[in-house]
Design a protein that fits this description.
The complex is a heterodimer of chains A (112) and B (889). By secondary structure, chain A is an alpha+beta fold. Chain A is built from four helices and five strands. Chain B has five domains: 71 residues, no CATH class; 194 residues, no CATH class; 181 residues, no CATH class; 180 residues, no CATH class; 204 residues, no CATH class. The radius of gyration of chain B is 38 Å and the shape is globular. Classes of the chains: A alpha+beta (112), B alpha+beta (889).
Chain lengths: 112, 889
Amino acid sequence: MGQKEVQQGTLALMVLKTLESMGTLHGYGIARRIEQISGDLLSVNYGTLYPALLKLEQEGYIASEWGVSENNRRAKYYRLTRAGKKQVERETRNWQETTEILARFLAPEASR
Amino acid sequence: MKTLRALFSRIAGLFDRERRDAELQDELQTVLQMHIDDNLRSGLSTEEARRQALIKLGGIDRVSEAYREQRGIPILETIAQDIRFALRGMRKNPGFTAVALLTLTLGIGANTALFSVVNGVLLNPLPYPNPEQLVILFGKTKQFEHASVSYPNYLDWEKQSHSFSSMAPFRGENFNVTGQDEPERLQGYMISSSFFSTLGVSPILGRTISPQEDMAGGSPAALISEGLWKRRFGASPGVLGRTMVLNGTGYAIVGVIPASFRLYSGDNPEVYVPIGEWTDPTFRDRSVGMGMGVVARLKPNVTLEQARADVENVARNLAAAYPQADTGLSIGVLRLKGDMVGEIEGTLLVLFAAVGFVLLIACTNVANLLLARSTGRSREFAVRSALGASHLRLIRQVLTESALLGVIGGALGLVLAAQGTKFVLAAVPQALPRAQEINIDSHVLVFTLGASLLAGVLFGLVPALRLWHTNLQQTLKEGGRGTAGTRQRTQNAFVIGEMAIALVLLVGAGLMIRSLALLWGVNPGFNPHNLLTFSVTTPPSAMKSPAQTRVAMRQLHDAVRNTPGVQAASLTGGALPMDGDSEVPFWLEGQPKPANTSEMNWALFYIAEADYQKAMGFPLLSGRFISENDTETSPPVIVIDEYLAHKYFPNENPIGKHLNIGLLDLQPEIVGVVGHVKHWGLDRDSQKKVQAQVYVPLNQIPDRFWPLLNRGAYLMLRSSVDPLTLLPALRASVAKVNHEHVIYNVRTFDQIISDSLAERRFSMILLGLFAALALVLSSIGIYGVISYLVGQRVPEIGTRIALGAQRKDVLQLILGRGILLAAAGVILGSLLALILTRQMRSMIYGVSTTDPLTFAGVALLLMLVATAACYIPARRAMRVDPMSALRHE
């Protein structure tokens, strides 16, 4: 299919980032949004997404409540908590550092 | 913080599983629907939209499973799984489960019950602030190891010692309450103003006694107990300032003491009056102890040794200052708790060891059962191992099963213990100090849980270890027969151990039973049957002067004597056999008066009337007893017991000689010698230093002692029928003399003797129970092993019979095996018992700890029971049908 599964450890940040930009969203919406942003390069597996949502909720970064969707369907809506907002900043910084470091390793010899 | 929060949330996730599952299903359904909606919008057919959505979702079950794993704690869930599995296994084997649980319930229950006693009596601190600082002070002389303190000495102890932050005297006293309500007799204390502050007890209402009230001529103030406050004053706060007439004097009530307060467990004081206001000359005599005790609080960081050195110094100074009264008097210091608990500690520890042995037998039994079962299950384990279960996982399963058995057994044991403790304490209420403090508290719960888990792991470990060593694949090849050889050895060792421990317990119980049998056979020196004692309140109106008191007592005596059914009656005072002691110092005619009190000879002192000897039923050995003609105007006389006669008049006739009783200002002539009464109890009488006994006529007691006598007199009567049936008639008789006479403190001497043996009876009952339990459990153990042996050897036995062995031979073969095991246990147990029963030396009476009769008796009993237990499977072996046994092979 040409799509890749989400890499271990990155899904949580994607979820947080999605909620940061979109506000309140249901599980399906989160999955679709991640896929869209990735330009449909990623495929979100619900068997990974739901445990990840639960874990974030257990850690207090997101909160959920039942609501009604635009099509009148009962759905659980997730939103970022204050701790979650801080966690987004922290994780974003971490991830940027990591990618920069990794980029140096992957860059051609000459640039060193 | 984050991890903690997640952990809580996960723990919460263990519960309420169904609702959470339903929510997840709901949510996944929504996702599915949204997906389908989107697919429809992008132009797919209904069917295709649904199909693609389902593919995308990737199987709802898998998602749910992943979700669940994140929700709970996986290891807890496998443990839960193990527990469910174990429970299923227990249900499938109801026989095994019932026997194992019953065994554990008995074992853990007995341990919990005894631990709750040890905890309540020995371990728990006394219910006062900083209880370790509280001590008891008392006098020690050549004759008395624990003498009461005289009031002048107490005042000097308090002044001259430096180790105590405060000190307080107390003295038990009975009070007649008269006035508006029914006359009543109350137990109470005379105390100093410092008494409650020393202990750290505050009144729930009002205040305690003030120092101004605690002195001669102070205004009479009294404290009452919460119980009396509720009973007599309806718990009214207006009680303060009201007047209560105690022994004819009006006291203002100034405070209420909480119901929980009780210095010694046998006491139930309901009123407290200041001791300092009591000016009786005998009480203020430095050389006389009037039953007063002293409690004190050590200063912080002062040790018992420092306090002892301090008071030793005080005692030396006092002996120098008051040689006549205080020479030879030293001061003892004991922790209050030690004083309350007394000698019971050794007994309780022996009992605790015994009950620990019972649990050991119980565990061994269950281990044996599990072992038998694990051999049967070795195939199951082999299969599970082949299917990928790790050794560790299987061992965890086995240990979970046994721990579960332990915990369920423990829970049932707790129920048994709660009931059993109540039952035993009710059966022998006088046996234990602090008995009212015994209950199931958090310590006991922790102990039970610990004992249960330990027991579970102990007996579970054996089969688990076996599992560890077994090559399961090998087992599978052998068809699940397992390693029967080593198992047999372990089982045999278990049975021998059980038998040995059972023998030790049986010897202990046997020694106690022999002791009590011997004690019951001891002649107390008088006839306790149909002998009754009681006290009568004497109305203050009749007690204005000694002459009036004499008349009133005379009337009281006649009223009791003339009640139908009464054969003999005597007013008495001073010492009461086997109950209260009272001693007088004396010296012999023609000898100089000893220089000080501790150089005097001492005798137990009984005040008696003419019928006293007839009532008590002790023999007159020579001369005469006190008669009606010994009055206050006739020459003073005294009757002595044979002990005094032998000790002080070894080669002469004491009749006609005189004794000097300095305290009473009397020099009476000895007119008779009577038999010795075992005053100190059937068991300890001969160990006491003061054994000589004197009987002084009531009428000849000098006037100045009558106020004291009036407080402490009682009646002794012999009847032709059960004396308790006479009570209504007696009450009517004394009420006829004066309606303010109330009979109280009624006891038969059968009861008094039985109470004096309560502690021993308590030990005997418990040791007997434990030994019986051990006997039953170890019999079940040997029965189980022999049964198993027979089961294993059915084919062999069949072959033997087929080859011509006699049934008798088979019986002998099997029985012989059982008897061999039992005999090994008996020998091992006898050796153990020889060592261990030494700890019981203080508990037994009249037998040696190595009493051959007891040892032989219980060994025989154990052999007989073991043989009987083996006989059942042996008979089954005898009846093996050779044909079917061989076909089976």
